[in-house]
Amino acid sequence: MIVIYHNPESLESNACLKILETSKHDHEVIKYEEKPLDKIKLTKIIKLLNIKPKDLIRKNSKIWKDNFQVLEDDGHKFNDDNLIEIMIEYQEIIERPIVINGEKAVIGIPATRVFDIITQKNI
Questions:
Q1: Separation CA 118–CA 63 (nearest Å)
Q2: Is domain 2-116 given the CATH code 3.30.565.10 in the classification?
Q3: Cβ(23)–Cβ(16) under 8 Å?
């Protein structure tokens, strides 16, 4: 089953969801604001995405800029564990939507990236 970590207020997230719905794949929608990620799930998602934790952070978010970018600008270095803990505490800085299909995952920006991890069914 395909899982999408979804924000209904996001155009990209809604576009990903529409792709999943029209492709007729079984999928589960997790509204991340209602069901936050824990450390185990977040770590697994980062591994599935095959990225570093820093690549999952929305660097333009106000929370990141106000609280953490200033520290980096002052020379502070965050290690991967620090960044994961920050994302757990401030879930809204995590890039979304995240779409997972088994052992494959993508950040759905642009939404068409979903096609990289789903097979087309006859519609």
A1: 33
A2: no
A3: no
Q: What are the percentages of helix, strand and coil residues in the chain, rounded to 5?
A: 45, 15, 35
- Check: CB of residue 103 under 8 Å from CB of residue 48: yes
Which residues are CB-neighbours of 99 under 8 A, at least 6 positions away?
Answer: 2, 3, 4, 5, 16, 20, 105, 106, 108, 113, 114, 117
pLDDT tens-place string over residues 3-41:
999 999 999 999 999 999 999 889 999 998 899 999 999
**What is the rounded distance in angstroms from the CA atom of residue 68 to the CA atom of residue 76?**
9
For the cut 90, the answer to whether the pLDDT of residue 121 exceeds it is no
